[in-house]
Amino acid sequence: MNFQDMPKVELHTHLEGCAPPEFIRMLAKEKGLDLSGIFNADGTYAYRDFDHFLEVYEAACTTLQGPQDFYRLTKAVLEESASHGVVYQETFISPDFCGGGDLGAWREYLAAMEEAAAEADRDLGITLRGIVTVIRHFGPEAGKPAAHCGVETFGGFVRGFGMAGGEMVGRPADYSYLFDQAREAGMPLHCHAGEWGGPSMVQETLDHLKVDRIGHGIGAIDDPALVQRLADSGVTLEVCPGSNVFLGAVDSWESHPIQKLRDAGVKVTVSTDDPPFFGTTMTREYEMLNKTFGWTKPDFDEVNRTALAAAFCDDATRQTIAKRLD
Ligand code: HPA
Ligand code: ZN
Questions:
Q1: Whose CA is nearest to atom 3 of ligand 1?
Q2: Tens of pLDDT, residues 142-161
Q3: Which CATH number fits the domain that encloses residue 137?
């Protein structure tokens, strides 16, 4: 089976987290920033655990300082994704990591991303849409400018609102006012939950943030009633198995709950999260799902249709992408 060429829909990536280390080194050099501490001798990103990953991630983001940087990043990311058969990708954009939520600056950054995305759509057959995310471990107050930025830019390239970052800080309810603002503006909603937190974190995210999609959500597996609730509600999980194994959120591919969640009727989809940080690609995710759980073309087709149905794009785009999956 040629996994690389299979058309793929990927809902859960972080734009900055898709930056190859050599790209960040190039920007650091241009700006005279010494970021040698965040790289291993072999050039890969260097970090010990998830919390340290977030610190390294934040340091890498300091190199992104203007529209041209976001233009080049978006181009590089889409070339890589397209080479793995991705035909539609959504990506989290984190104003909190890159200069705060200054609306004027962010309008320019988003316009640059949109321009790069339009070129990739035309030249490579890959469509990209953005989801503005607040960063949870900065606290509920700090998310205000980014949430404002999301609401103000919603409708074109920006298709949704969400939350990423360290999960074990505060409770979902602390952030509900930000999600309420976005919902009132008509934005579809995502939140990272149940990557590190157990079922209670997923439960509270459903109760208080009323999201359409959960990033990871794998912690739900420890509560059968919650798994049933997810299946009944139709909330889609953006599962990133390679990321979970790499970071140690699960022990191994064999013990990853993606198959059990799918068997229970939960809508599961497959994504990479931050591919160069976690040593993965969409091709590798498919190879490992085939090797571990025996997934073949019909399984991947189903997962891609699930992902497209849950995508935050408009319906005309959804129909165009559906043709690319045939
Ligand atoms: N999890 C949570 N927050 C993040 C991640 C992740 O994998 N990557 C960037 N922000
Ligand atoms: Zn993520």
A1: 165
A2: 999 999 999 999 999 999 99
A3: 3.20.20.140
Closest by CA to 91, choosing from 314, 263, 319, 272, is 272
Residue-range definition of the domain harbouring residue 207: 12-19+69-325
Residues near ion ligand 2 (CB < 5 Å) are: 273
Q: In what order do the strands lie in the sheet with 158-164?
A: 8-14, 86-93, 127-135, 158-164
Stated pTM of the model: 0.98
Structure-block tokens of residue 47:
């970090």
Into how many domains does the chain fold?
1
In a domain, 58, yes or no: no
The answer to whether the complex's ipTM is over 0.85 is yes
In this structure, the residue with its CA closest to atom 1 of ligand 1 is 165
Do the domain assignments include residue 48?
Answer: no
Spatial separation of the C-alpha atoms in residues 116 and 121, rounded to whole Å: 9
**From CA 148, how far away is CA 153, in angstroms rounded?**
9
Give, as one character, the DSSP assignment of residue 256: -
Q: Which ligand is nearest to the CA of 274?
A: 1
Q: How many angstroms separate the alpha carbon of residue 326 from the centre of ligand 1?
A: 32
Bridge partners, residue 163, by sequence: 134
- pLDDT tens digit string along 50-86? 999 999 999 999 999 999 999 999 999 999 999 999 9
Residue 38 located in a structural domain: no
Residue 161 CA to ligand 1 centre (angstroms): 15
Q: What tokens does 81 get?
A: 């994704």
Contact 273, 247 (CB under 8 A): no
Residue 140 lies in a domain: yes
3-state secondary structure of 224: helix
CA-closest residue to ligand 1 atom 2: 165
Pocket of ligand 1 (CB under 6 A): 14, 17, 57, 164-165, 192, 195, 243, 273-274
